From TrEMBL:
Coiled coil: none annotated. Its main location: membrane. It is a multi-pass membrane protein. This is DHA2 family multidrug resistance protein-like MFS transporter. Residues 16-492 form the Major facilitator superfamily (MFS) profile domain. InterPro entries: MFS, MFS_dom, MFS_trans_sf. Keywords: Cell membrane, Membrane, Transmembrane, Transmembrane helix, Transport. GO terms for molecular function: transmembrane transporter activity.
Amino acid sequence: MTHDGAPRAGRKQWMGLAALALPTMLVSLDISVLFLALPHLSVDLGADATQQLWITDIYGFMTAGFLVTMGSLGDRIGRRRLLLVGGAAFGVVSLVAAMSTSPEMLIVCRALLGIAGATLLPSTLSLIGVMFRDPKQFGQAMAVWGTAFMVGIALGPAVGGALLERFWWGSVFVMGVPVMLLLIAALPLLPEYRDPDGGRLDLLSVVLSLGAILPLIYGLKAVARDGWAPGPLVAIAAGLVVGAVFVRRQRALEHPLFDLRLFRHRAFTAAVLIGMLCGSLQTGTGMEVALFLQTVEGLSPLVAGLWLLIPSLVLIVSINLTPRVAAKVRPGYVLGGGMLIAVLGQLLITQVAVGAVTLLIVFLSVCYFGVGPVGGLVNQVAMASSPPEKAGSAASMVATGGEFGVALGIATLGTLGTAVYRSELVLPAGAPAVAGDSINGAVGAASGLPAAQATELLDAARAAFTTGLHAVGAVNAVLFAGLALLAFTRLRHLAPFAGHHHPEPEQEQEPALTG
């Protein structure tokens, strides 16, 4: 027991946390594991540039769209039961995805995996709140959860590269099966939790949330691909209108999917925004660098994955250093300083030339070191800025923002890189038109050309893609600078997280938090 009467977690709870970290890492790993597999499955399934984007995007979109919905469902049927259902579904659909025979089949499987993943994240977060009552231990457990999520994203390309070196592209999905079997075997370590006062699942809110997110993302992707045409503008406008209706409905419901009252606290709002946008920028950069290593530098999946393991390890070190620093330095300064380091890394990436693999990895490592504090602090800031009875809702919102941010990064930064590639590439005479869609298309087209033409096409495609990478780095540098300003201005009042940290009671104005 602690001095305030909260029971301390024992060995069983910490073993249960390890079991919960497994699906968390897998759900996030599944976002980035396709970065290196994409060229292989695109050739095998005949996926065009638009289908490739949907294969990578739809998983994160569906996870983000259903995350809080599944959290509400878990309140009604039990978190551990939902974890069992979601884990089993994730394993079965992973096997089906590995056996896909068309781009459309894989897109559908990725969508179903996203929905299954949405059952896992809120269940793990809610059970952590049940298992760890002591405030200090709860903060440590949330840091472990955040580390597992971010490490999963970072390790995805390395894991994918290792699998692709020895197996076919479907192996990146098969690996989900043993992880889910381990989770199911560990369920006896976890308590069941059902909220006796949980509200009814509002199906209209579920429809409205998806009706807001998906048109917005589709519109952004279409603008990057086709310009400001009427179709994309209509989609963006429709998403915004539905989003406004969704927000209005949440304010009227007694048991909303999103408890908008949490956003009255400026620190909570800032934490959600930083987590979402940082995940977006990190994932978008990782995808572009993974493609650069494999298509521009011509590295094998295994070698590219091993190179990407270096910044992943730097990220792990940064995440684990953050709690120690945040015990002495205000979290707003820790997060803002990290964002400035990420700005430096992105600016350095804009100077990378073809053939400078070592420099690119060093620059990406600088960026990842700056991103690390987000994984180590955002959950704690959100929890500290929320009343204790709202901890589960707050954690779900942070997770939703992170998932949406990752998907948004892949969509917007991926399409930005593609748009720059298409505008910069001048196709040599005799080159197929498909080479102008994406660098994967150029690599595939070059294999059917005479040596001289193939070399000319690949040189032009590599130069155009490198320009696209520079553009992504420049945009990211500006956005990271904005996040630094947000952290410095909106979180500077928070005291260092030293010792036990007790959130203040819920109130209309910003709570005065102390260490």
